[in-house]
Write a structure and sequence with these properties.
Urease, subunit C, domain 1; globular; 6-stranded parallel beta sheet; 7-stranded mixed beta sheet; binds zinc ion; 16 strands; 3 domains; alpha/beta; TIM Barrel
C-alpha cells in the first residue's frame, strides 16, 4: 500500500490489498451504466468507510483548523482569509468567474462597491483564480459541534442517535452554554474558511437556542439563518419569537402550532422548513400537507411525492453524506432534482464537517449531475430555498458581494474544467479568500 493510502485511512477502498469480491464491487461502483448498484455497493461497504472514500480523501487540508482564518484582506495571503472589509472599500477580483445562476464561466473582472457587485466585465484579467458564489448550506444543526463524540456512533440506528433522547442529546446536554457558543463559532469559522457564506440552521433548544445563534452570528462573517425549532411553549408569543429568528421548523407529529407558524412565516417573509422521509416515509404526507418552503432528506420518497413537490413548488434540502452515515442509504437525488429545486446541505455537525466542498465532491461522484448542476445545488438553489435568491447565491450585478476565490497553484493546478475542479477536488486549502460583505 502506498504511503498516501495509509495516510488517508481509507485502506478498504484503495485497491492494493482488497479481496476479489471487493475488487469486483469496486469495478461495479465505478461503471457509470450501473448507477443503482452504487447504492447497493455503499450499503455493503458500510456508511462511514464509504464516506471516507469519497469525502475524507480530500485530505487533511480540508479540515484546516479555524485558526487558519484571519481577517486579512490582502490578496495573495498564504492562508485562506475571510474578507469582511468595510462595506465602502471598493475591491476588484479577477480570473475565471462563474456568472449568474447559469454559472457560465468568463475570463473577467468583478468589481465590488458598497458591499455589492458593481460590475462584471470581460477585461482586466490579472490572475488564474476561480471565482464562484459563496456557498449556501440549507441544512445544519451546529449546536452539536459539541457532540463530535458521535463519531463513535458508527453502528447506532437513527432512533438511537436522535430519539428519547438519543446519543446526540445525551452528549449535548453535558455542554455548557459557553461551550456550545464557542463550538458554534468555531464551526462558523470553518464554514467561512471552506467557502460558505450563508447557512440555515435548524436550531435546537427553542428560544434559548435562537438567542445563542443570534449572539454568535453577530460576531461571525458567515450569515446564520436560524430556524426556531418548535413546538415552543404555548405561553410564549409565537409571532414575536419567529420575528426574532429567521423562520421556524418542527417535527412530526405536527400540532396546531405548526400551521400557525407557517402562516406567520409567510406573512413575515421568514422560512418555514421541515424534515420528511428520513428513516421512514411515515411523515411525508403530513409534512408536505403543511406546504413548507422546503423540506429535507426525502430519502424514502414515494412515486406520488415527486408530483406533490412539483405541484406545490416545495424545495428539498438533500443531505447525502448524512443519509449515508446514519441510514446507510442515499436520497433519490436525480428524481428529486427533476421534480423541484434541490439544494445540498451538510446536516448535523456531530457526524459531518460542515464543508460544502466535501458535500459537492461526494454528490458529484455518486450521482449523475454535471459539475455546474452540483455547483448550483451548493449556491443559488440554497439561496432560493431560504428566500434569499434575489440577494445571494449567484454572481450578478446588484447582488451582495458574497463570493469565494479559489487559487489554482495548489490542488487546482492544471485543472482543465474550472467548475469540475472546484466541485470534484477543491479543498479548503485552495480557498484564497471568502469575501463576505
Ligand atoms: Zn435536520
Amino acid at each position: 500500500m502506498s504511503d498516501e493510502a495509509s495516510r488517508c485511512g481509507c485502506r478498504r477502498v484503495h485497491g492494493r490489498n482488497l479481496d476479489e469480491d471487493m475488487q469486483r464491487r469496486l469495478q461495479r461502483v465505478y461503471a457509470p451504466e450501473e448507477l443503482p448498484d452504487r447504492r447497493q455497493f455503499l450499503k455493503a461497504l458500510g456508511g462511514v468507510a464509504a464516506a471516507g472514500a469519497f469525502a475524507g480523501c480530500s485530505g487533511p487540508s480540508d479540515t484546516s483548523s479555524p485558526t487558519a482564518v484571519s481577517t486579512a484582506t490582502e490578496p495573495g495571503t498564504e492562508t485562506a482569509s475571510v474578507d469582511q472589509s468595510q462595506a465602502d472599500q471598493p475591491t476588484t477580483v479577477s480570473g475565471t468567474i462563474a456568472v449568474g445562476p447559469s454559472m457560465e464561466t468568463i475570463e473577467g473582472t468583478l468589481e465590488i462597491v458598497d458591499g455589492r457587485i458593481e460590475s462584471i466585465t470581460e477585461e482586466g484579467v490579472e490572475s488564474n483564480d476561480i471565482i464562484v458564489p459563496a456557498f449556501v448550506n440549507p441544512h445544519t444543526h451546529i449546536t452539536d459541534a459539541t457532540a463530535k463524540d458521535g463519531e463513535r456512533a458508527r453502528n447506532y440506528s437513527w432512533y438511537e442517535l436522535f430519539i428519547d433522547p438519543g446519543l446526540k442529546s445525551e452528549i449535548n446536554s453535558s455542554a455548557t452554554r459557553e461551550e456550545k457558543r464557542a463550538a458554534m463559532a468555531a464551526t462558523m469559522e470553518f464554514m467561512a474558511a471552506s467557502g460558505t457564506g450563508t447557512f440555515v440552521d435548524f436550531k435546537e433548544e427553542g428560544i434559548q437556542g435562537i438567542d445563542d445563534l443570534n449572539t454568535v452570528d453577530q460576531q461571525e462573517p458567515v450569515d446564520a439563518v436560524g430556524l426556531l425549532t418548535g413546538p415552543i411553549d404555548e405561553e410564549a408569543d409565537l409571532e414575536a419569537e419567529i420575528e426574532n429568528a429567521d423562520g421556524y421548523n418542527t417535527y412530526a407529529p405536527y400540532g396546531e402550532q405548526a400551521e400557525r407558524a407557517r402562516d406567520i412565516c409567510a406573512d413575515l417573509g421568514k422560512v418555514f422548513a421541515l424534515h420528511s422521509g428520513e428513516p421512514s416515509p411515515d411523515d411525508i404526507d403530513a409534512s408536505l400537507a403543511l406546504n413548507p418552503d422546503y423540506t429535507s432528506h426525502m430519502v424514502q420518497a414515494r412515486e406520488q411525492d415527486y408530483q406533490t413537490l412539483a405541484d406545490n413548488d416545495i424545495g428539498v434540502a438533500a443531505l447525502p453524506r448524512s443519509n449515508l452515515v446514519i441510514l446507510d442509504e442515499l436520497p433519490p437525488l436525480e428524481r428529486l432534482h427533476e421534480a423541484t429545486t434541490v439544494a445540498l446541505g451538510t446536516d448535523n455537525v456531530m457526524l459531518n464537517a460542515a464543508s460544502m466542498l466535501r458535500e459537492m465532491e461526494f454528490t458529484s461522484k455518486l450521482f449523475d449531475f454535471t459539475p455546474t448542476e452540483v455547483l448550483q445545488m451548493a449556491t443559488i438553489n440554497g439561496a432560493r430555498l431560504s428566500k434569499r435568491g434575489d440577494e445571494i447565491g449567484s454572481l450578478d450585478e446588484g447582488k451582495r458581494a458574497r463570493l469565494t476565490v479559489f487559487r489554482t497553484d495548489r490542488e487546482l493546478q492544471n485543472v482543465v474544467d474550472p467548475i469540475a475542479g472546484i466541485v470534484r477536488r477543491a479543498t479548503a486549502r485552495d480557498v484564497r479568500r471568502t469575501i463576505l460583505r
